[in-house]
Amino acid sequence: MFEKENTSEVLPMARYVEDNFYLYDDGTVMDIMQIVAKDLQNCSEQDITYDFAKHWKFHKLNADEYKIIALNFPCDLTEQKKYWKKKIETTKNPYLKNWQKRTLAQLEWLEKNRTKREFFLMFFTENAAAHKEFILRNLQIMATGQEPLLKECDFGRKEQILYKMANQNMNIQR
C-alpha cells in the first residue's frame, strides 16, 4: 500500500510571492485570473463571434497550461440593504414604507438563498519569466476590445478562491 507521511509530500508547499503569484518548491508558478462572464442572451451575433474567436485563439496557444474553475459565491447585497434601511428610516409615507420593507426582505432572502457563479483560470508555468510572458500574451488576446474577457485577481481574491476550492461546503464573504 502506498502511503504518504504528511500533506507536504502529496502537495508541494507553495508560498505567495510579491509579484502576485504562488511559487512551489520545485520552482513551478501557479496563478489565478478571473474570466469575465457575459450575458450571451443580450449580445449581438458579432460580439459572440468576436469573443468566440478570442477564446479559440487563447485555447490554441495554451491548451495544456490552464484549468477553468467554476465556483459559486454568496451574493453580497450589504450596500443595497444599507440603502433600503436608510430609506425605510427616512420615509414618512406608510404605504411606501411597506414596499420598501418588502424590497429589503427580498434582498435578505436573495443574500441568504442565492449564489453567484464565477469562473476562474488557474494556470501553471515553469518559472517566473514564463509566468510573466503567459500573462502578457493572454491579456493581449483576451483583454482587448470594449469588454475584457480576462482580468487579474488581487491576493485577497486568490485566497478566497483557493479556500473555496478546498472547503466547497463553506460560504465565504467578499
Dominant shape: extended
The largest sheet is: 6 strands, antiparallel
Which structural class do the helices and strands define? alpha+beta
Mean pLDDT, as a whole number? 84
Q: How many H/I helices?
A: 6
Low-confidence stretches: none
Put the structure in a nutshell.
The chain has 174 residues and is an alpha+beta fold. 47% of the residues lie in helices and 22% in strands.
Please explain how this structure is put together:
The longest helix is centred in the middle third of the chain and has 20 residues. Strands 1, 2, 3, 4, 5 and 6 form a 6-stranded antiparallel beta sheet that branches. The model has no long low-confidence stretch (mean pLDDT 84). This protein starts with 6 loop residues before the first helix and ends in an 8-residue tail after the last helix. Helix 3 packs antiparallel against helix 4. Helix content is 47%, strand content 22%. It is an alpha+beta fold and 174 residues long. It is extended.
